[in-house]
Structures are given as C-alpha cells and as structure tokens.
Amino acid sequence: MTSQADRKPTSPHDEWTQEWVVTEAEAGGRIDKFVAESAEEGVSRTQVQEWIRAGAVTVNGQPVKPNYRLAPGDVVAVTPPEPEDADIRPEPIPLNIVYEDGDVIVVDKPRGMVVHPAHGHTSGTLVNALLHHCRDLSGINGRLRPGIVHRIDKDTSGLLMAAKNDLAHLSLSEQLRAHTVERVYIALVHGNLPHDRGTIDAPIGRDPHDRKKFAVTAGGKPSVTHFAVMERFGDYTLVRLELETGRTHQIRVHMKYIGHPLAGDPVYGRAKTVPLDGQALHAAVLGFVHPRTGERLRFESPIPGDFRRILEMLRSR
User: Fold this and answer.
1) Contact (Cβ atoms closer than 8 angstroms) between residue 73 and residue 105
2) Paired residues of 287 in beta bridges
3) Computed from CA positions of residues 297, 242, 178, 100, in that sequence, does the dihedral angle turn out positive or negative?
4) What is the pLDDT, as a whole number, of residue 171?
C-alpha cells in the first residue's frame, strides 16, 4: 500500500499544494480553523472558508464544507487559488543571469530576494524581475509564479532555474520529481561535525508543535540530504550538501535534526550568531538536462561576499 508521504505529484501544480495528515490531537477540530492555523501563507479563517467553497481544500481527495470536523488520519490538501485581482507587474530589478536561451534562464539570486509573489506581497520579487527581462515565461503555475519551477528561501542565495515556455517547464518539473536535477549547497553550521561525510535520511513534515515550521516527523515525506565537510573552525563547520529530495526547508530542518543548525538561521537555529541577515546557505551548483536539446548543463556560483567575509573572519581567529 502506498502511503500519502510517497504520493507523487500528478501535475506541476502539486509543488505548490500544502498537505497535512491529521493527528489524534488535532482530530475533532473544524477544517477551516485547522487550515488557517497551518497554511504557509498565514491566511485568515474567512479566506480559508472562501478556498473551501471554491474547492481548493480537500480532505482525502474530496471537497468538504467549512464546518467539516477532522478525523485522525485525514489527509488535508490545499492549493491556494490565485486572487482574481492579482496584478504582477514587471519591475526593472537587476538580475545576475548565469545562462539564458529561448527555453530556460538560470539566475544567481541574491540573499533577501523573495522568489515569487504571494498574497499581499506582489512586488520586489524574482518573478517581477523576470517579467521585465523576459518577453515570455511559462504559464503552468499561473500569474503569481510564471516560469517558476522550484524555489529557494528568501534568505538563501544562489542558483535557480526558470522556464520560458510550457515545454521547458514540464521537462524541468519532471526532472525534479525524478531527482535527476543536481542541487548542491554550501552551508555554515554550528558545532564540529563528528563525521567527514554522511547521509541524513529522515522524513520531513509539519512541526506538530508549530505548524508554521517543518520538522523530522514519523508521518513526513521521504527526505534525503548528503553532506561532506569542507572546512572545520572548531565551533563551526563549513559543509557541502547535496539534495536527493527537495522538501521545504529540507537542509535547515535536517541540519537542526542532527544537532548542527545553520548559522544565522532565525527559525531553526540561533539568530544573530554571525553577521549575516539570515541563514548561511548558498545554492552553489545546479545541473539539469536541457528540455529541448537533451544536453546536460551544469552551473556553479561562488560563495557571495557577505558569506565569504564570515569564513575569512573564522579563519583569522
């Protein structure tokens, strides 16, 4: 029997679907209250009720009413619909373009830039910049996420690919689902890792104690991260991390799980431990098969200046 954690997305839209399995402690509560407290966007209960009426919320694959009472084991899925008045405008925001052709664009995203607009946040994002730079972007993920195939966190810097047409989008999405996209990150973590290399194979789901966060949980989705030590500083370690899967906050959750949270991570670690606005995490390598030519492409991005200065400071101690 296939568990919900092993369910593969049925369309590119599934990457944006939020999904939870109801625990014994959560059973008996109303579906609208549960989703309002759990949704990544932090929407209101009134907004959730509108989503439910629009069929954007399902329980065990079926639409429900806002007063539905949850049962243990219920699988709640939400794909937030785009607001009808979504007006995402092109903005002349500078882009560090690593590669571009008629199908794909690869950019080196700076720390602090949000990848795509969300409800109530429609400017200053990578999507706004891409819309200004590109004549066309794929429309598979709608008006809020045109061209966006995958995400990296706001305060994570580094390489990200976007699709200029639907053919490219479908190909890149399938490569992500098949785990054939090479994604390598560089991170500075707290403590001295006892092993030079290893693999963290631990399922990730919503944190049962704080549903705005993620954690290693028994009912989570399979998640695998490979790590290798690059440099040791005694109380910090520089590591190379390769994603086999791509769960939300995967590296941040897995490193916290093994007792070595990312330096500067305000959510899963100890904020302000290094002079960096956010976690010390950089998407350094991105590799994939070109959706039209079949050629294997691989790109590298150097560690950005703010991150590099921290390493120089640690080396000089």
Assistant:
1) no
2) 182, 298
3) negative
4) 95
Backbone phi, psi, residue 92, to 5°: -75, 65
Whether the predicted model's global pTM rises above the 0.85 cut: no
CATH of the domain at 198: 3.30.2350.10
What's the token pair of residue 86? 């979504």
| Active site residue ranges | 153
Spatial separation of the C-alpha atoms in residues 196 and 229, rounded to whole Å: 5
pLDDT surpasses 90 at 309: yes
Q: Is position 85 within any domain?
A: no
Asked if the structure places residue 213 within a domain, the reply is: yes
Strand partners, 206: 214
Give the DSSP letter of residue 138. Answer: -
Q: Containing domain of residue 246, as a range?
A: 184-283+308-315
d(CA 243, CA 241): 7
Angstrom distance (rounded) from CA 317 to CA 307: 16
Dist CA 290 CA 171 (whole Å): 8
What does the chain come to in residues? Answer: 317
Domain boundary among 78, 103, 128: 78
The enclosing domain of 29 has a CATH number of: 3.10.290.10
**236 has pLDDT over 80:** yes
Give the pLDDT confidence of 268-287 residue by residue, as tens digits.
998 778 989 899 999 999 99
Report the number of distinct structural domains present in the chain. Answer: 2
Count Cβ atoms within 10 A of the Cβ of residue 295 and give its class: 0-12 exposed, 13-18 middle, 19 or more buried. Answer: exposed
First to last CA, the chain: 55
